[in-house]
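Cross-posted from the bioinformatics board.
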Amino acid sequence: MTYPYILRRLLQSIIVLVLVSMIVFVLMRLLPGDPILIYVTQGNLESSTQEQIDLLRKEFGLDKSMPAQYVNWIARVIRGDLGKSILHRDSVSGEIARRLPITFFLGMLAFVISILIGIPAGIISATRRGRWLDTAVTTLANIGITVPIFWLGILLIYFFALYLGWLPVFGYTSPFEDFWLSIKQVIMPVVCLSVFAIASNARQARSSMLEVIRQDYIRTAWSKGLRERSVILGHALKNALIPVVTLIGMMVRNIFGGSVLIETVFNIPGMGRLAVEGILGKDYQVVQGCVLITALIVLASNLVVDISYGWLDPRIRYK
Amino acid sequence: MAELETPLFGFRETLPRTKEFRRIVRVFLSRKIVVFGLIVILALILTAVFAPVIAPYDPYDQNLYDVLRKPSSKYFLGTDAVGRDTLSRIIYGSRTSLMIGVVALGIAASIGLAMGLIAGYFGGLAYAFIMRLTDALMCFPMILLALVVAAILGSGLKNVMLAVGVALIPAYCRLLCGLVLSVKENDYILAGRAMGASNLRIMFLHVLPNCFPPLIVLMTMQVGMAILAEAGLSFLGIGIEQPTAAWGSMVSDGYQYLLTHPILSFAPGLTIMIVVFAFNMVGDGLRDALDPKLRGTI
């Protein structure tokens, strides 16, 4: 592993990090409404006088110039202070700390499942190209990347919870409280969250596998008389997986995006739901926190993906 | 291209354009699923244009005597909680979806293309800045970005188009930048420059047209993505204002009556799925037809 490559990627990530924080800051300043007035009216402080409002404005640093506000804000964020939530009457970081594990739990399950099902499905369908299994996988994958996941959630609720009565309709219980109930409640949301990722993994794995098995070294492997198992798993797999790995960063992003919808459908108190509540309730400090934390997690996973990519594919390091 | 003769004395016979076009059409229409997608898209356009003629009822007409009717010969897909005909609302919803798809795409494509073209063509600092900006935008989940932009602009059709459009920008920027980087290495660009063509002329007349095939594929697929994103926003109650007919909000409205009237959610959701599927399949078909290297692999 070459260090210059890692160093370069780290440096790029720091620049991206600064840009991400700037985008979040600018977006939040563009949101309609004076934050102080929202704070005052929604916090039941309507009796406050103009002087008190001015004092609050000073206290929040909103009387300073934009760059100064940005620097102040960053300094607070680095200390872990994301502001106060109006709706939850608590610090935003506390609220996120309570809700992020829930989204993380569902997201991790969806992530693992989509890799475990999606990639093998794509590989198998590539090696059986044109047969019924390939047709079935391709068709399902094409449906998987199209289905609106919130609607899929509703379909699942109708059939498995209301009609068959096998699973609870919605809600969330921590697996540490009641393991079996938690698993039952988690099945449908995780299916919804992973369906897009399974399908796109399968499509990508299939197409890159088809690309790889046309290469000369695979023909050599066949002509040496190797069995299919060792040709596919020993020679083709590693190279076929390279383009799939690039998708993983995108997958993390899509799963977080999906949780915004799915947590609403299944009434799960995760971070996606928190963001929607924040938008609907004009609780912009919360929105800011959620957007920032989500972007940071995606950024970090992209960095990990890129570094492991350089390890998988040595050509990348020298570009 | 297998049909070509071996180059003789450095001359190469080029195929006439019409033949190439016919080949593209033939490959494009060779898969049944692509033809299906094409038919669905045509049907969608016709439905959107002729919605008032096709729809059996006014989609906004609240008939309080016929509330929550089951599907029947009078109301083909039943009626909703305020007595509006579901089928008519789905038909009118095609206008919303198609408009979002096309306009959001236009916004995303024009801004994304400009950014990608500048980054790829000029390289250096412009490249570094635009690519890092794209990286940063790509850290935000599309729906979350659209959600915040929609909150900034307020609800309503125009603003949702803009919100979805902004969320789709990074994909174009990235794709085009990569394409431009490879296209500008070609000799004909060097020839253009040697003849004294301006940067703008080279960018728009020589680089951009040669980036078209993958772009058309991305654009087709992005229409589907835009429709899905709008449906998601309307489902969350942040998109189109009531009572405008939009498929996403119909799914969400019907969710409350899931136990007794599942069709209220099922029908609009299925419509979204079929339409997005159609755009994806046509995109796949176009890729197969326009890029001979990839034919049949995806």
